[in-house]
From TrEMBL:
Repeat recorded as keyword: yes
Organism (species): Maylandia zebra
Lineage: Eukaryota, Metazoa, Chordata, Craniata, Vertebrata
Residues in Fibronectin type-III domain copies: 177-324, 446-555
Main location: secreted
GO CC annotations, alphabetized: extracellular region
Transmembrane regions: none
The protein, known as: Protein NDNF
Localization in the cell: Secreted
Length: 569
């Protein structure tokens, strides 16, 4: 056995800063290794790579970092694996040329510390392997001489994380799960918001009985070559605020934002010793997601966006050591939204449109003749809807519409108009739409006041009648009032179902009709009418509806009203 073993130990003791304490370095003496690997303080931020354990490190840009590894006997196998995380790395492995004697006189006394450090740092040694890139790369040798091995790493792009694993027993260790003969991830099913993935299981769990689970990473940018690269990206996305610049004063908002009591900002006094709760960042949807699914090798990713390209990576993870191996990732574009049938609008004709909850509907208007202007009428029957109008692809209009609205659009010869309606989140929507190029086209729907409520006069209630009032307009329109007896527990949800403004008097029973009358007033301040409804039962609840009918026959319903007659008179 060469004397270099004792010299190597001395050098490593210096690097570890352990002074003259006699501490045997980690080798594959299994009992000693298990004891040492549990002592995290031994390898934390040191320059020694333990035999048979993966370590994590951090590099500052353009600042090399060196690690050392001892091979105590000749003809020893050696495997060194480097995993870049955030950025490509340059790394090289060298065997240090160490002197045969620990000192010049051969007395066995160690040389002065400065001479030992100089010998290690100045002597470049024999270069065994070099690599530059962001792949997980390994140096493997079946037989190596004893000595001190130096691993030097450099990141030239940015500060970066990395992982290193070194072992002298690569055949028995197998720290990283083994990939199957076909390491590809396959897309087995593709939908608008889902993608199903499948891959062949790792033989590590089946043959060697090691606990293996799979983790799937989904993002929109690129595939990842290692789990550590994906986790570095996730950590970057989770960062929610940069540190304030030196000398910057904090405003009261800053203290509240970070979770401190707002009273600090009021009087700037440090009188309170109350500990505030920690600040919690608001959850947000990240561009990268990681899901660990146990030992299943089929997984369906859901809640994706239609017509969007995603990248999928699968990692086999050794649950005992947390080491991982990357499968060959894949990518796929989700399917487009199903193209809806476009409704053709006819010039001057009313079309009824039904929209599902949060759904969309497209209408196309292509005037035959040349035109200068297009008048668009929209009557929403239930909840408000969003309307967008494009002329030959150019956006002309985008806003929410409730009730009856009229829009004037500038025309263009041979222009085609695409109208898109989007439903509300509350429920399905129904509306009536009319588009016309005729300059003298009259309003197809009756005009409405701003307030379409029905007012009931409590003091005028009797056991058999109620008196109500509603507003009108300056246009002479026909008003029809209907009544319907309902249960005492008639609720708001039932009222909403009855509130379809597009359902006209023709949908009602003749027995529910009270009367119809014409009404208008040149003075809007006096455009109000009253009506007493008789023939009611004592102590009963009634639903009242008022319909206003326009010249073209289209009707609009006011907001319905619940009334109750007196039980005793």
């Amino acid at each position: 056995m060469r004397q270099c073993k004792g010299w190597s130990v001395v050098v490593l003791l210096v690097l570890l800063g352990l002074g003259s304490v006699a501490q045997k370095l980690p080798t594959r003496d299994e009992g000693l290794f298990q004891m040492q690997i549990r002592d995290k303080s031994l390898f934390h931020d040191s320059s020694v790579i333990p035999d048979g354990a993966e370590i994590s490190g951090y590099l500052f840009r353009d600042t090399p970092k060196r690690y050392y590894f001892v091979v105590e006997e000749d003809n020893t196998p050696l495997s060194v694996t480097v995993t870049p995380c955030d950025a490509p790395l340059e790394w090289k492995l060298t065997l240090q040329e160490l002197p045969e004697d620990a000192s010049g006189g051969g007395s066995g006394e160690p040389e002065p510390l400065d001479q030992q450090k100089q010998q290690v740092t100045v002597d470049e040694g024999t270069e065994l392997f070099t690599y530059k890139g962001n792949d997980v790369e390994s140096y493997v040798a079946t037989s190596t001489p004893s000595g001190l091995y130096q691993l030097e790493l450099l990141s030239t792009e940015k500060d970066s994380n990395f992982k290193v694993y070194a072992t002298t027993t690569p055949e028995s260790d197998q720290p990283y799960p083994e990939l199957p003969y076909d390491p590809r991830v396959d897309v087995t099913a593709l939908g608008r918001t889902t993608v199903t993935l499948a891959w062949k299981p790792t033989p590590t769990g089946l043959l060697m009985g090691q606990p293996v689970q799979y983790c799937v990473v989904i993002n929109k940018e690129h595939n990842f070559k290692s789990m550590c690269a994906a986790e570095a990206k996730i950590s970057t996305d989770d960062a929610f605020m940069l540190a304030p610049k030196p000398g910057r004063d904090f405003s009261p908002f800053d203290f509240v934002h970070f979770g401190f009591d707002n009273g600090f900002g009021k009087d700037r006094g440090l009188t309170s010793n109350k500990i505030s709760r920690a600040y919690a960042a608001k959850p947000r949807v990240s561009d990268i997601q990681k899901v660990c699914i146990g030992n299943k090798n089929i997984f369906t990713v859901s809640d994706l966006k239609p017509d969007t390209q995603y990248y999928f990576d699968v990692f086999a993870v050794n649950a005992a050591t947390n080491t991982s191996t990357a499968y060959v990732g894949t990518f796929a574009r989700t399917k487009e939204e199903a193209r809806q049938k476009t409704v053709e609008l006819k010039d001057g004709k009313v079309s009824e449109v039904f929209i599902k909850r949060k759904g969309s509907k497209f209408l196309r208007f292509a005037p035959v003749s040349s035109h200068q202007r297009v008048t668009l009428f929209v009557h929403t029957c239930l909840d408000a809807v969003q309307v967008q109008v494009r002329r030959d692809g150019k956006l002309l209009l985008s806003q929410n519409v409730e009730g009856i609205r009229q829009f004037q659009l500038r025309g263009k010869p041979k222009a085609k108009y695409l109208i898109r309606f989007r439903g509300s989140r509350k429920g399905a929507s129904t509306l009536k739409v009319l588009a016309s190029t005729r300059p003298s086209s009259k309003q197809p729907f009756p005009s409405l006041p701003e307030d379409t409520r029905i007012k009931a006069f409590d003091k005028l209630r009797t056991c058999s009648s109620v008196t109500v009032a509603w507003l009108g307009t300056q246009d002479r329109n026909k008003y029809c009032i209907y009544r319907k007896e309902v249960a005492d527990n008639y609720g708001e949800e039932q009222r909403r179902r009855e509130q379809n403004q597009c359902a006209g008097p023709e949908t009602r029973r003749k027995s529910e009709k009270v009367l119809c009358k014409y009404f208008h007033s040149p003075n809007l301040q006096k455009a109000v009418t009253t009506e007493t409804i008789t023939g009611l039962e004592p102590g009963k609840t009634y639903l009242l509806d008022v319909y206003v009918v326009g010249h073209s026959g289209h009707s609009v319903k006011y907001q319905n009203k619940l009334v109750k007659t007196r039980k005793y008179c």
